[in-house]
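Our consortium's second objective concerns turning raw sequence data into structural hypotheses that experimental partners can test. To show how far this objective has progressed, the report includes one record in full. It was chosen at random from the queue rather than selected for favorable results. The single chain below, 482 residues long, was entered without modification.
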Amino acid sequence: MPKNDNSQEQTIYRTLAGKIQMGFYDQERFPSAKAIADQFQVSYCPAQRALKMLENNGLVKLCRGRATVVLAKPYENYLKTDIFRQRAEALLDLCASLKLISPAICFHSIRHMEIDFSMSSRFQGELPSNGIRDLYQKFEQSLHALGSRTALNLYYDIGAFAESAFVDILFNQYGKAGAISFFQEIKKEYLTYIQQYTEKTSNRSMRPLELLCQRFFEKIEAYLHVFESTSNNLSPETFSWEPHKGRTRYCDVIAIDLVCKINQNVYPVSTLLPNGSILANIYHVSEITIRRTMALLNKLGVAKTVNGVGTRVISKGDSTIPRKLKELTLDDNMRTFLEALQLLAIIGGPVMRYTFPHIHQSFFKEIIHAASQSGEKRAMVDVVSAGLQAVVNCCPLAAIREIYSKITLQLLNGSVLRLEETGAEPVPGWVRIADPLLESCRSSNQDRFASAYQQLFEQNFNSTKQTLIELGVDGADGLTGF
């Protein structure tokens, strides 16, 4: 196993090991290193290292010039392992989270999928192995249609955490023949929905996808509820997501965001920045990361840290900051920012609607204050931030809180675009978003609240995408819009 659990090869290893466990390659050739690299959108080397890890752990045998041979599954019975017992509680939470966001992701991607329905008859016959392969591939095709590495990495990490749990539970509950039949029915209904949507033969509603997702997880959740109620002396393991595979320097993007706030007098010159624990809570990182951020602000000449006093703002940032931190202006960082906006625009409505009854009044006050500001650009940025904070702090689902905390960090990549803004810049259509949002907070209108945020997220993505395309950011035009 690699030392870096967040590396590209580790993600590939976990995903392929999970597919081996689910029987994907019982009757199918194992993919080549090149095919793996293409699928995961990485270079050849991480794919080759992941294959070597599989071989070192006795799961496959690499044969030069011939197809890789699968030797063994990672577990004899995954549902009997300590790993499953440690993850059971988090898996139950993950089921509810997937029911919330997966229909929205599929609904958005279907508009951009290219499917040859003349081939659909092939899926009506007998499916290889346990029947899950084609269903899995259709969903993965939906993810690829988004053009987003962030969305792919989210579901790769979900798959790595769940391993074969969902499939094994369904085989346990239905039996082999019943489970295969169940997978076939779910896949057939999913393809039928896609075809009807594409051919405009039915009302384009997301509701059928929501019902299909609920049906898929019904027996899984029932099994996990019973399992969770039994005594378990093992320490529970929680789900975590790392959108960026590889080394991540959160201190860089946090520093840029703080410079933006200094420039806009949120933290005026001569005042002290909030202490480390407060900033760590705001940005959802460790206090060590905040200390590194303060050191960076010192080097950039915008702040000075005095032991026993704190970090004082001594100067505003200027246009030289991006050159001093030139890695933040790379196309990859801007695309990461845009992918976070896209994911937020896709799942924002359902998540806001679900979280609304659990949001504390203090967060509604923050949203109202943010939306009531005179500067439209500052108001929009603050409304997005307040909404994210409300989800991270109030949503009952731990997986959703985890996803939104990482989206919050990803959005900091875009702070470099705001370095020279005053916050007073106009935002097209802002009144049409702000007024319903303010009304929904005051009247506790759940649907209107979710709709206003959905509109805000979509508009934010579309306008930012256009800006990045005009700036020539590589890959910006490949992300599907609204």
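The partners drew two points from this record. The longest strand covers residues 303-306. The two ends are 41 Å apart (CA to CA). Both points have been shared with the crystallography group to help prioritize constructs.
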